[in-house]
Design a protein that fits this description.
Number of domains: 1
Structural class: alpha/beta
CATH class: Alpha Beta
Largest sheet: 6 strands, mixed
Strand content: 15-25%
Order of helices and strands: EHEHEHHEHHEE
CATH topology: Rossmann fold
Low-confidence stretches: none
Length: 171
């Protein structure tokens, strides 16, 4: 097994309003903004920085990124991807594989069911048992899984990332 030289922060967007002009334009609720900020503070407390971010172009994911990044002290400009909005787990993994090689920590913010399925797909079963068990119990809004990964981004495949932590942010 290679050393875990890279990190993936996989996030389901924070709590959003039920209505909007379109589903993609739904905004975060006040609670969602607070939860996203709480996630950012938790990640900063874990010593997690961000070198690159892949964020669905939907309003609620962009707003999750903005609140999280502000609270974590990150100044990375995210890659807002329209295709990630409706992507399934395999397509999401393909998008992650395109991460620039110099990035050590990638933050990915998307939607369920894709994010939850991707988290389980990536899990190699060698990580933090409590975190993996909590993740298996559900992937609510504001959920964050921190993975370690020991290869090049292009080599990411099912069961190649190690769960280091799981957290459900509540502000």
């Amino acid at each position: 097994m290679q050393p875990l030289s890279r990190r993936i922060v996989l996030v389901r967007h924070a709590k959003a309003r039920q209505d909007g002009p379109t589903d993609a334009e739904r905004e975060l609720e006040d609670r969602g903004r607070a939860d996203a900020a709480a996630a950012g503070r938790w990640l900063a407390g874990q010593g997690v920085g961000a070198d690159h971010a892949l964020v669905s172009a939907a309003t609620r994911t962009r707003q999750t990124w903005e609140a999280m990044a502000r609270a974590a002290g990150w100044d990375v400009v995210p890659d807002l991807d329209r295709g990630f909005y409706g992507a399934g787990p395999e397509t999401a993994m393909d998008l992650i594989r395109l991460t620039p090689g110099e990035a050590r920590t990638l933050v990915v913010i998307g939607h369920n069911p894709t994010v939850a399925y991707l988290a389980h797909l990536l899990d190699d079963g060698e990580g933090d048992v409590e975190a993996a068990t909590a993740m298996a119990g559900g992937y609510p809004t504001g959920a964050v899984t921190l993975f370690g990964f020991g290869g090049d981004w292009a080599d990411l495949a099912p069961a190649t990332a190690t769960v280091l932590a799981f957290h459900v942010a509540r502000g």
